[in-house]
Amino acid sequence: ETGVTQTPRHLVMGMTNKKSLKCEQHLGHNAMYWYKQSAKKPLELMFVYNFKEQTENNSVPSRFSPECPNSSHLFLHLHTLQPEDSALYLCASSRPRQTTNEKLFFGSGTQLSVL
Amino acid sequence: RKEVEQDPGPFNVPEGATVAFNCTYSNSASQSFFWYRQDCRKEPKLLMSVYSSGNEDGRFTAQLNRASQYISLLIRDSKLSDSATYLCVVTGAGNMLTFGGGTRLMVKP
Description:
The structure holds two protein chains of two kinds.
Chain A: E1 4-7, E2 10-13, E3 18-25, E4 31-37, E5 44-50, E6 53-57, E7 64-70, E8 73-79, E9 87-94, E10 105-106, E11 110-114
Chain B: E1 4-6, E2 11-14, E3 19-25, E4 33-38, E5 44-49, E6 55-57, E7 60-65, E8 70-75, E9 84-91, E10 97-99, E11 103-108
Parallel strand pairs in B: 2-11
Antiparallel strand pairs in B: 1-3, 3-8, 4-5, 4-9, 6-7, 7-8, 9-10, 9-11
């Protein structure tokens, strides 16, 4: 196992629903990330947290709201999503971000379908 | 120009073949380079880091060419289990890791 667990694995939601994705890492890392992977597109970085502080928000629409209560847990709260938000959402963790990047360890992802 | 560019493939090769992928990057200040492997409907997993002097791990060899701004991955004696998408990852703007679109490899019996 990767040491990064994500739930749920699959999620189908309507455009008016509110749901949350959960990520937990057991690797002792202090940086956590949300990535989006759409079909036939590269992974897109959404958010970065370093020691529980958000350090990157890559112009993500406000219908995606991250939360990092501690270095081991990361949430992505979803509301009023659009069909084009359907994608694989991947959580990752690493040692703290410094001047050079650390290796990323990914969770299995949540396959999200918005109807 | 994309920050990190890869030939999407697919590369179809027979078992036992040697195959090589290149990846070009646009940020000449990039410091970190990696190859990740992603199986269908699975998460990316680190395959190997790429060092300036090049590095080898079993059947896999990674090279960095800073002058031409590309990295390469060579796979010798391909196995069926090598079939996957190989993602090139480079530090991009703001020193964040930037992923290429991936190169799909299919090893056939």
